[in-house]
Backbone:
């Protein structure tokens, strides 16, 4: 900002006489051009679109969409949220699903940077909350290193949305004093989580119970059940797999560690899904999708 002011002051001095009167009629136009160039500086807003229900999108996220020049969106962004994108705004799909990547993470970061440096208002839309297993740190780092301003708008994470719409509390005074979010995106044994630590809270070994929520765990549900049982967790511990959480297509599969794989297969759960493990599943309560349904019942 100081450098910009110094440059404008030097330009003013070259364009005026000793009395401060402008002698160069093009001075004002050149100043306007410089100001306009700086005002067109691009930026990136990374927003969380929530788990699916369009009404869970925040007002701040909606405002960012309406003020955008270009929108980059992920595979887990629901069609209802995409329908809110302004028609005149360029939209670019950069989704990544299992074994199907439309663009690498490095490519996405490079594209955001390129668009921002062109002076565009870029909005990056992610499912759920951008700060939870969504690589927002990597993207912000790339942009920060190039001096591109970034704004992050939080969203409702899948764990919160799924538990609320399924009627399963994530914590409860009687059995779960904490909740742990775990990514199940494990490529090898070396990248698996600390199963002994995870098992302690849900096995009753700790005086303070815990709930485990696995993101991206549907394709590894057999491994999750196997590892927890191997580390001392009862095979009868309840598990809930929630597919298409918060949407009209939501499907809930309730089972135990011993039979969750079979029940998921029988119910043809294909994802995207979130997995909740712990005694809180047994405390499930009935919930309505809309408040109006309760009022008119």
Residues:
């Amino acid at each position: 900002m100081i450098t910009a002011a110094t440059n404008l002051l030097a330009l003013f001095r070259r364009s005026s006489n000793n009395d401060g009167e402008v002698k160069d009629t093009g001075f004002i136009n050149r100043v306007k051009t410089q100001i306009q160039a700086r005002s067109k500086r691009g930026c990136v807003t990374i927003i969380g679109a929530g788990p699916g229900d369009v009404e869970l999108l925040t007002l701040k996220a909606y405002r960012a969409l309406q003020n955008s020049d270009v929108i980059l969106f992920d595979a887990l962004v629901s069609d209802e949220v995409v329908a809110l994108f302004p028609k005149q705004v360029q939209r670019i799909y950069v989704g990544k699903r299992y074994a199907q990547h439309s663009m690498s993470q490095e490519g996405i970061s490079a594209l955001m940077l390129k668009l921002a440096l062109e002076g565009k208002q870029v909005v990056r839309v992610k499912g759920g909350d951008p700060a939870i297993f969504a690589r927002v740190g990597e993207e912000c780092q790339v942009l920060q290193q190039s001096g591109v301003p970034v704004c992050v708008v939080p969203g409702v994470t899948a764990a919160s949305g799924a538990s609320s719409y399924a009627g399963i509390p994530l914590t409860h005074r009687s059995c779960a004093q904490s909740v742990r979010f775990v990514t199940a995106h494990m490529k090898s044994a070396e990248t698996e989580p600390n199963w002994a630590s995870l098992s302690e809270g849900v096995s009753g070994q700790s005086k303070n119970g815990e709930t485990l929520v696995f993101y991206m765990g549907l394709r590894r549900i057999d491994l999750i059940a196997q590892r927890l049982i191997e580390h001392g967790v009862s095979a009868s511990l309840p598990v809930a797999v929630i597919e298409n959480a918060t949407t009209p297509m939501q499907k809930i599969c309730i089972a135990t560690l011993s039979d969750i794989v079979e029940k998921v297969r029988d119910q043809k759960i294909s994802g995207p899904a979130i997995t909740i493990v712990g005694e809180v599943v047994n405390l499930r309560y009935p919930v309505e999708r809309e408040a109006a349904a309760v009022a008119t019942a």
Observations:
- The chain has two domains: 43-156, 159-283.
- The chain has eleven helices and twelve strands.
- The first strand starts at residue 43 and ends at 48.
